[in-house]
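Example 4.3 (complexes with small molecules)
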Amino acid sequence: MRIEQNYSLEKHNTFHLPVRTRWFMEYDSEEELGRILRDEYFQECLSLHIGSGSNLLFINDYNGIIVHSRIKGISVERETDTSVWLRIGAAEVWDDVVAYAVSNGWGGIENLSLIPGEAGAAAIQNIGAYGVEIKDVVETVEAYNQLTFERRVFTNADCEYGYRYSYFKNEHNDPYIVTYLTIRLSKKPVLSLDYGNLRDELGACAEPTVADVRKAVSAIRRRKLPDPDVLGNAGSFFMNPVIPVERLERLRERYPDIPAYPAAEGKVKVPAGWLIERCGFKGQKHGSVGVYEKQALVLVNLGGAQGYEIALLAESIRTAVRERFDIELMPEVKYVG
Ligand code: EPU
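Answer. The structure with EPU bound is encoded below.
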């Protein structure tokens, strides 16, 4: 176990905000996590469990305990002729899991290549890209109840997955800490190539493999999204809004080129990036905060930004989109403090 006091979180949030936490604790096993959860001082303090901080916006220093898992490891739990089940420690780097699966020729998560963050957070957030979401492969999620200390194995259905949503994100539910997840991959991969320009990227590749798809997805992401190690950011800042089809039809009278993708019955998903670009924000710089010039859904720290500056720019964007389109953008990024 590692415990630090008055600790900088600069390396623990991909906006690279120089905030500090009163305490920082890292545990290496479920047993150590149990000791932390049962500690009386811990129970009295404000606390937050984080992954690699690729979806967090710290507004202030954190006057409590930031907890981080170091439970790693990928193991084959079960195998048949067609499937393989991998049990993954929550602190495993998600892209390492994808690389491992792809190197074995196992399919299911190749479209989720190069997404920053750790496996546990990926399962909580229901990460998604290029037509695939992690919920498509999750079998079970193992988690500890922070209040009762009980371990529970969630089935895929128990996780109540939706777009960038799971049971673990609902603040009205009991708080759980995810320790492991098990995913089911296919030994006879059926590729998902219908999103955007993925097929074009694969070009002349007549019979693409999972490795080809990983390469293509990585190339698209590298072109469109800034590398957080170079330019602090948290990927998509907002979720893509889901609106009723009738609303879209009314909007199309004024904006015939508004893009939309099918969502739940009678609803469509509108790309927030398009709405933000239409409001003129793409590529804009406001002091040390900017809207990325190649993808308007990404807010970037141009150097030395504070969390509140990013939040202010996000608020101006929300207001502009509301006033122009009557659509409410909801942050995908979690605000802390
Ligand atoms: N668009 C614009 N201008 C922009 C950006 C996008 O007009 O500046 C429009 C274009 O019409 C484009 C469409 O939006 O065709 C979709 O853009 P893109 O394919 O880049 O995807 P997105 O909807 O902006 C979502 C996810 C990404 C994921 C991509 C690819 C959300 C909130 N974001 O973005 O996830 O990588 O699809 O599947 O759902 C993340 O969550 O951090 C993330 C990066």
